[in-house]
Write a structure and sequence with these properties.
The chain has a domain of 74 residues: Winged helix-like DNA-binding domain superfamily/Winged helix DNA-binding domain (Arc Repressor Mutant, subunit A, Orthogonal Bundle), CATH 1.10.10. It is elongated. It is mainly alpha-helical.
């Protein structure tokens, strides 16, 4: 359980930065070299490498080195746990909003919302 919480935290930490999100968006189109990822970004190559390290530590990206070229690939399954967590939160809040709507509707018509008739 602790390991799942850690990986979820690492995924959200990685996704929290707009530069890392831009890198992930680029990788959705296919593998890219570090140079390809760095080219459109207004940051230094060492900063790109630091961002890539965060993405790799989170499991969202993997890379492989062939000679002097490092190629990065997105790991789409790594987002599954974050997606499940977000969906669970959404379902919880939808349930709460439904309960609130029912309560407000009952109040509007003078009914009871706790199921007890007075």
């Amino acid at each position: 359980m602790l390991n799942k919480q850690l990986s979820l935290s690492l995924a959200f930490q990685a996704l929290a930065d707009p530069t890392r999100r831009a890198m992930l968006v680029r990788l959705t189109r296919g593998p890219a070299t570090v140079s390809d990822l760095a080219r459109p970004l207004p940051i230094s190559l060492p900063a790109v490498l630091q961002h890539l390290a965060v993405l790799e530590d989170s499991g969202l990206v993997r890379s492989e080195k062939s000679g002097r070229v490092r190629t990065c690939h997105i790991e789409p399954r790594a987002l599954d746990q974050a997606e499940r967590w977000l969906n669970a939160q959404r379902l919880e809040w939808e349930s709460r909003f439904d309960q609130l709507a029912n309560h407000l509707q009952a109040m509007k018509y003078g009914g009871s919302t706790d199921g007890d008739e007075k």
